[in-house]
Amino acid sequence: MNVLWVLAHPEPRSLNGALRDEGLRTLADLGHDVRQSDLYAMRWNPVVDDAAGTCDQDTCDHDVRREQEKLLWADALVVQFPLWWHSVPAILKGWFDRVFAKGFGFGVRDGDGRVLRYGEGTLAGRRAFVITTAGARAAGMGPRGVHGDAEQVLFPLLHGTLWYTGMSVLPPLVLTGADRLTPGGYRAAAAELRRRLRSLPTAAPIPYRAEHGGDYDEHLVLRPHVAPGRCDLAVHRA
């Protein structure tokens, strides 16, 4: 597979830096071709200076075109970051804002003018795998934890960004207790990362419902017979 690894962490000697290095070695050992976007090392500019967010071959900045070309080359996207304030670091948000521009990430239509999103779009056919570290303990990011269920905390990224653009989204790897990880804890985390990367081509993705799959009505609301009586984010899983 062709794999694009996007890292958003300012310190290469951090836990995230070590895991990135472990991940790249693992992918190479497995025979995958890998390209990397280390956003802090690249001094990525996260600021959108076109209010419309439009980006085509004539108006798109060179750095944005280069990232789009990496995405089109890739069969899989790995997005790695520390969870800051229940979200991605600003530099990564700015990468999505600029690279997933109108005509590439959104505003994509087929020949009949139908909007392609939530399972369809420019990046359909690719896989996406999110890796994040959090200081919270595992129980605190569980279904009844005060921080919220980890997958639902990541819903805007997993569903609203990656699935929106057509990618098949794998269950995220959320490494909790990152600020108190012991050497043994790191070895366990690295082993889990290697296990997940070995299954990158074959792991079952999160079964999100496609916008045009029949579960949503003309107002983009789930039909009454689909997950009746429920309003939680998990209703968007088939």
Based on the model shown, name its key terms.
single chain; 238 residues; alpha/beta; Rossmann fold; 2 domains; six-stranded parallel sheet; 6 helices; 6 strands; globular; Flavodoxin_fold
Characterize the largest beta sheet: strand count, sense, and whether it forms a barrel: 6 strands, parallel
Instruction: Report the order of strands and helices.
Output: EHEHEHEHHEEH
CATH topology assignment of the largest domain: Rossmann fold
What is the number of strand segments?
6
CA-based shape: globular
User: CATH superfamily membership of the largest domain, which one?
Assistant: Flavodoxin domain
Task: Tell me the span between the first and last alpha carbons.
Answer: 27 Å
Instruction: Please work out how many helical segments DSSP would assign.
Output: 6
CATH class of the largest domain: Alpha Beta
Please state the average pLDDT score: 95
Helix content range of the residues, please?
Answer: 25-40%
Query: Structural class from helices and strands?
Result: alpha/beta
Contiguous uncertain segments of 5+ residues: none
SS strand fraction: 5-15%
Rg, Å, rounded = 18 Å
In CATH, the architecture of the largest domain is 3-Layer(aba) Sandwich
